[in-house]
Fold this sequence. Notes:
With about 200 residues, the protein is an alpha+beta fold. Helices cover about 40% and strands about 20% of the residues.
Amino acid sequence: MKRIMMIAGSLALAACASNSGKNETPPPPAAESAPIVYAAKPTTNLFAPWLLVRDRDVADARAFDEMVRKLSLPVASDVSRVAQKNDEGRSLIVDVWKGTNMGVPPAALKKRTPQLQQAVTLAGEFAANRGEQARIIVSVSDADKPSVRKWLESGLAKGRGRFPTELQWKPLKKGDLPFVRIEPADPQYAFGPFSK
């Protein structure tokens, strides 16, 4: 399509340039009329910014996982490979971060270990530094909630993101293990920019 547009544009410019200084009468119209070619409006690639945020989130989630593992705490990021169509209609395979789960060992929480404090602070910082709004879901006992909130708020304060982080507290049921989950706040996050 671009090639046809370029050829049609070149022919039009050449015709204008060759006839500009002449006072000749135009040739009679041909029996067959040429097809009309419409130029497409220039559009921005809306897919590129969407893709950059997803790539950065995947890289940041993997880096976060590595830092938390060094602190000897359980962590796992959910990264899925999805096929999306960009604004040019091409299919692309994209890695999409769907969330990160960090376990909060009850023994470490009871002792308020420096490793746990650092990991929870890193979780707040990771969420606050995202290119889109994040949600943090925390499930700890009511007695541990003030300490965990303080650690999270310390990390959130270090963040340089433009979006406020949504913080949700989930009651800890008997028999459940405490956790911190960071995830995209937008339910359409995993879908392409043209799904909205």
